[in-house]
Amino acid sequence: MQRIMNCLLVATGIAGLGAGQTFEVASVRISEPFRQGTEGSRRGDIKTTPDTVTMRDIGLTSVIIWAYNISPYQIANAPGRDSERYDIVAKAAAPATVDVMRRMMQALLLERFKLSVHRETRQLSAYALVEAKGGHKLLKADLVEGAGIESDPGTWILRGKATTLDRLARYLSDPLRMPVTDMTGLKGRYNFILDITDFVPRQPVAGEPPPDPVAIFQAALPKQLGLKLEARRLPVEIVVIDHFDKVPVEQ
């Protein structure tokens, strides 16, 4: 009975996405480093072009986080760190936005991994991203799609390229180890540079605790972007994983 219910959930989920919301072709395989029993880089990689998503050596949790556009702190019952890793190459029939390809990836997870999820809203300790006194210092971008947020290799510099403030909030949740919610009220896309070099101790001192990322971003955000973080109890949407198959269906 449970298997029948899972199949119904898969069929209903895919149908609900509508025509044109699935990839034309897709390859999903367990990655070679995992098959060989070696660790490899184990860092994973996700790249997008106007019609293709390519994921290499990536865990299922990271795929779900990307597909549902959430932070690592908005997922429950996630696969463990020791679970399999995958290579996924999925191509759309025509150029599509990243948001559309995320929905296509949800359909692919339903189809190949028999993934079923539900959403819950929980009251959690979190940070609200809001405007600082004097207002924001962001540059409005005219593009409807951008590269998002990138970090310069070997530096402490973040570059926002036609990105949303919601995306910045999710990016900050990782170093802050807590959900971050965009409550600026600022819509559209923006360009910005956030350089936290001067806020990070250059030489660690033996016996002293590592630098506090909260203190670093609390100092840098108001000065450079005109934004700040406020600690609050907030309603946070959580994606709860109900079922998934470790071995994907190959087509």
Question: Rounded to an integer, what's the Rg over CA atoms?
Answer: 20 Å
Number of helices: 6
Shape: globular
DSSP helix fraction: 25-40%
Element order, helices and strands?
A: HEHEEHEEHEEEEHEEHE
Going across the biggest sheet, name each strand in turn.
Answer: 1-5-3-2
* Overall number of domains: 2
By DSSP, the count of extended strands is 12
Low-confidence runs (pLDDT<50, min 5 residues)?
1-19, 36-41
Classification by helices and strands: alpha+beta
The CA-CA distance between the termini, in Å, is 25 Å
Q: What oligomeric assembly is this protein in? A: single chain
Roughly what is the average pLDDT, rounded to an integer?
A: 86
How large is the share of residues in beta strands?
25-35%
Largest sheet: 4 strands, antiparallel
